[in-house]
Amino acid sequence: MAIIDADGLFGGNRWRGCTNAAQLHWPRLFLASDGFGRLELNYNKIIARAYSTFNPAPSEAELQAYLQEYSQNYLLFVYGVDGQIWGQWDTPAEFLPRYKTAIDRRSPIPPELEFNEWKKRYRAETKSLQKCFVNIPESFLCGKGLVGYGEGKKTRLSNGDGPVDEMPSGGVDAEPDTWNAACAFDELWNAYPARGRVRRPLAWHCFSDKIRSAQAFRAVMDAVMGKWSRSEKWANGFVMALPSWIEQECWKEDPEPVAKPASSGPIYRKWEPPKTIGGGAEMSNGNE
What is d(CA 125, CA 139) in angstroms, rounded to the nearest whole number? Predict the structure, then answer.
């Protein structure tokens, strides 16, 4: 079963942009998603899965408004596959079930290039859903050449038999993905000492705020694998929590290296070979 991270839910910056109602409904929608954190944006299926005990259930317009807020606040990535609309929650894998079901594995993977770009950019101009599930504008879909489509296609939110419409030629262009922040963060997380790998969602938030280029990331990794790995603090087990280490930009500091023990000289007198006298031998006592 998926896990809801209390730190992220109660203190996440992205949640501050959502209304109280959207925040209260999110746990049901998140737990209604599959083992990969994916949810088909089909009103009837969502109601049957997440709101079977509600009377009355949220209206289509209400549910639409909540999804719009999640998308605008970069909590839910929306993409189209084979005439259906899906949403991918931006949540770490550690909060999702370890073992996936056959149904989970049949859910379509979001387009990697656009999904990574969406996670790292935090666009200034957000995309939004329309007021009705059955008519999604092309500006909402993230990227060009969506999974299951040729270039310059859009889709509609599935209600079981919705058609696929054509986009104007050209589609939505995406810049080449030269800086993959999500993969870079995973590399930093794995390289950082285990004692400091805590509160991963907060660490990711600090990372995305402070480290925004491949050049900055290289400086961070050089520090982690170099001067900080040889620091006296880390050698003695005093490892700062990764979110704080990033927030305070500690990779720019020069930590005190591990002090080398002073040499006190040999403890024992050097051994000398025996001296041969005549036909016999005797041991030198070093005082001759």
Answer: 11
> Residue 122 region, left (φ>0) first, then alpha (ψ -120 to 50), else beta?
left
State the pairing for strand pair 275-277/76-81.
unpaired
Q: Which of 129, 130, 136 is nearest to 163 (CA)?
A: 136
Please report, for residues 174, 177, 194, 275, the alpha-carbon distance to residue 184 in angstroms, rounded to integers and kept in the order given: 20, 13, 17, 67
Q: Which residue has the tokens 């809801």?
A: 4
CB 224 within 8 A of CB 191: yes
Q: Which residues contact 261 (CB under 8 A, 6 or more apart)?
A: none
Whole-model pTM above 0.85?
no
Instruction: Report yes or no: 208 and 181 within 8 Å, Cβ to Cβ.
Output: yes
132-169 pLDDT, tens per residue? 444 444 444 443 333 332 333 333 333 333 333 333 33
The alpha-helical segments, DSSP class H, found in the chain are: 6-11, 20-31, 43-50, 60-72, 102-105, 112-121, 181-191, 200-210, 214-225, 232-235, 242-247
CB atoms within 10 A of CB 283: 10
Distance CA 247, CA 32 (A): 34
CA distance 34 to 36: 5
Q: Which DSSP letter does residue 252 get? A: G
Say how far apart CA 204 and CA 146 lie, in whole Å: 27
Give the number of C-alpha atoms closer than 13 A to the C-alpha of residue 112, restricted to the C-beta side.
6
Going by C-alpha positions, the residue among 69, 67, 87 that lies closest to residue 77 is 87
Cβ contact 192:220 at 8 Å: no
